[in-house]
Fold this protein.
Amino acid sequence: MGAVPLLDSVWLVGSGSHPDALTDPHDCHCYLIWDGSGGVLVDTGTGLGARAWLAAVAEVCDPAALSGAIVTHYHADHAGGAAATRAAGLPVLASAETAAALATADESRTSLAAARAVGVYPSDYRLAPSTVDRVLAGGDIVRAGELDVEILDAPGHCDGHLVVLLRHAGRTILFSGDCLFAGGRVSLQAIHDCRLDRYAETVNALAGREVDVLLPGHGEPVLRDALVDIGRAAESFRRLVPPPNVLTS
């Protein structure tokens, strides 16, 4: 297991499903943006696979050269590794909502208690509290070496969700967290802060961004013509019909 190159300057360094980047079955996809002089991470997994995830990063670069780790949202499979990230000396960057939830490891706000109760996480798994070193909001720019990484607000799947936009080598790459997935699918859950109206606004806005590559938090990447997938979800929302759900019973 280790770092899997996906694109020029982009690696998959952690995953709950990719056979070559597997860190822990409960982890999301964790990405590394690295241009040879600097970089940034996108999402931190649950923390259960933190040692393997950090080792994969070290295969590509010196972690000390990174600007930190952007956490797209506060669900445990994306944010649970924030404490381990800080323990490794890397700053954590996230929205104000995620910062507030991580500060107290709030298992109600993050829906972890509900998810653990139905078997999504091990019965003994707990969210480790973590400080967020930089609070992000839509329009902010994070430097990754010579690259500019743009932050976009993307609520809907949950409050405070962010997505990450990278323009590099003539391509526009969207790191979508749990907002959008291959095939134009979305992630709808019966939790307190999954909001269809906000989700529709988010996806419709992203459909206007001319995205070429979609790198989601789970499942298959879309390495070309990703705007087709995003447009499919947006068109469904415009008809007032939720797009297909990546989550199944």
User: Anything to note?
Assistant: The longest strand covers residues 147-153. Residues 4-238 form a domain with the Metallo-beta-lactamase; Chain A fold (CATH 3.60.15.10). The chain has a mean pLDDT of 97.
